[in-house]
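Backbone shape codes
____________________
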Amino acid sequence: MRIEELGEAELIKIIRQVVKSRQHLSVGIGDDACVLRDGKTVLTTDAYAQGVHFDPAYMNYHDIGSRCACACISDVVAMAAEPVILLVALALPKETVSSDVRKLYQGMEAVCQKMNCEIAGGDIIAFDRLILSLTALGRADTPRLRSDARPGEFLYLTGYAGLAETGRLLLAREKEKADRSTPRAQAAIKRHLLPLPRIQIIRKLKLQIGALIDTSDGLATDASHIAEMSRVRVVIYPQQIPIHAATFRLCQRLGINPVNFALTAGEDYELLFTSKEKLPNRIINIPVSMIGRIEPGRGLYREENGAIRPIKERGYDHLTTRNKPSDVDNLWKNCG
């Protein structure tokens, strides 16, 4: 069966059937990062390809470097770990000039400075398009896992759902150039170009967090990962999902439901976590919203007007949708 028919989740199941444990890991395949046998060292790797994860048509090399660094380090933070080092492997087009490489590393270095970690080397090869393969290492006293949710806990989300995708669409569509300068549009664009991991929340709430994941594949998909790995039922309150004014305006123009957009839009790199505590709605000036609860059972559900029904929407799957225009992108083409 072709991988585009399988999808990412099924392909990972095949990989897990093949690889064998040799007792070097305490957490292996299936979470945001692996954890070595010492129980404290967290390690993750990600690949970012031109045309899939970033678009040089509206992003410069500094933007590409900073955005990819944020995305990789986010997986370490999503294990409640402090980032330590970043390894960088590059595939560079032969026409790349030295100033481009300098800007690329300046972007990554700016993020590492904010996250108090450092670039420790890597590899460079020539290729027909730009690809970054990044590996991040971090340290955690007690890593938090997708499987740590328990019935009776609340479900929380930092920031706004769908804001990064809103920014991407504003940048990708030439007709929206006039709207890009508004404060709400700038907030969306910033979250797309520089989705800094919410390390401040981890430092503040570490002991109060149960299950933890970052929203890279979309709120619905990532919440379903918590439900599956923790063997619980996750119930989301759609009316409490934090949606930014820029996203509401975008959805109004597209004629689509902002809640469905927020459930499926990916690459926000916000923290989605559970806690038995009732938390304030802002922590260190970062919005924190209680968007659901954890119950006994299985699966992902939404509760509206007293009725509970399954959430069927899911976010981006690299293997089944890569290089195919999304429904949102198609809608943009038809909007004046």
Residues 3 and 11 are 7 Å apart (CA to CA). The two ends are 41 Å apart (CA to CA). The chain is about 35% helix and 25% strand. The chain has a mean pLDDT of 91.
